[in-house]
Amino acid sequence: MADFMINWVTMALLTPPLALRSEQLYRNLPQLNQEVAAGPLPSLSIIVPARNEAVNLRRLLPSLNLIAYPGPWEVIVVDDNSTDETPWVAKEFGVRVVCLDDLPAGWLGKPHASHQGALAASGDWLLFTDADTIHEPCGPAQAVSYALHHRLDGLSLFLNQVTSGVLDRLGLLVAFAGLFSGLLSTSLSHGSYDLPEDGTPVDGRGRLYNGQYILIRREVYEASGGFSAVADESLEDLALGQQLRAKGYRVSLARGERLANVQMYADKSGLWQGLTRLGIGSFRWLGLSSILTALFITGVMAPILAMLSSLRKRRNRKWALVSWIVVAFGFVPWARRFGSTWLAILAPFGALLVQLSALWGLASRLAGRGISWKGRSV
């Protein structure tokens, strides 16, 4: 084999242990299945930043209207200068609507909408959730009970991922595996998986916040500056997590697949824009972890390059085939999580998609064009 062929095969063979380890790290996150505390809970404001989300709101708001929360609660939809029927759909479901007319200088859209929702809220706890989520009736009560039981200031959840086709399933399973493979060394070196003596599952990766579901004490939001402190960040959730962690607040990351579902991308265009935004934005907030993630995803993609090299040089393809099989084996647990074991065979194509989108985002940023998201440049 040519040297470059050996390099690609070697890189591919090094990735399966990381894929399996990343799946274990995800599985070891606290699984939120908290019983709802007896008696009333503190008041809760559910805040939905929404820009051109009329279609998604017709799925989200019925689920929020069915919430069983033992305490005062409200839903606030923040219409972020939508050009569709977003504000009218929200009003149809009887929720409170805050309409924004402009975007102040120095702000990006979602941080601004989220912050305006917080300013309008009356709850002791604030739950920021995306318009593309669907919530179980007891979900918010379980989340607040969990935070109170563990004396947390903030809680963010990974939700059950709903996908519409093979392409987004492949992109997301590789992106999730890559995210946790990047956390492998930093999390273990900081003892993030060791519980404190009081048993509180405070996650050492508190900077890793998922904007689909962020629960935070109102007083902590106000004292930390909340989204106003990360007003110009395209990945405002990661920025907020790091902000809270730096200020010493007790924050946790957990699995909440039983509390809510989310369909991140409705079509191929949304998938490409979303992966582009995540790929380039993560470099800023995940530091070394993002570099490890990029190397890991390159390794997952390597069987494709090894196979192409073997075909071009008309050499024995068995090592390229072996590398592909070994990479697929490492992705079996992730593929099962996304609905089908056979997706593991296609993992290299998912890695190719993630890698190309990240490179396109980087090129766009360097060219000064920015990245298109929700009809704006970020």
Which structural class is indicated by helix and strand composition?
A: alpha/beta
Could you tell me the CATH topology label of the domain at 44-162 and 192-266: Spore Coat Polysaccharide Biosynthesis Protein SpsA, Chain A
Q: What is the chain-wise order of helices and strands?
A: HEHEHEHEEHEEHEHHEEHHHHHEE
What is the tally of helical segments?
Answer: 13
The first-level CATH class of the domain at 44-162 and 192-266 is given as: Alpha Beta
Radius of gyration: 21 Å
Question: What is the name of the CATH architecture of the domain at 44-162 and 192-266?
Answer: Alpha-Beta Complex
How many angstroms does the end-to-end distance come to?
Answer: 44 Å
Question: On the 0-100 scale, what is the average pLDDT?
Answer: 85
CATH superfamily of the domain at 44-162 and 192-266: Spore Coat Polysaccharide Biosynthesis Protein SpsA, Chain A
**Looking across the biggest beta sheet, what order are the strands in?**
3-2-1-4-8-6-9
Taking pLDDT < 50 over at least 5 consecutive residues as the criterion, the unreliable ranges are 185-206
- Let me know the largest β-sheet: 7 strands, mixed
Relative helix content: 40-55%
User: How many beta-strand runs?
Assistant: 12
Shape by Cα distribution? globular
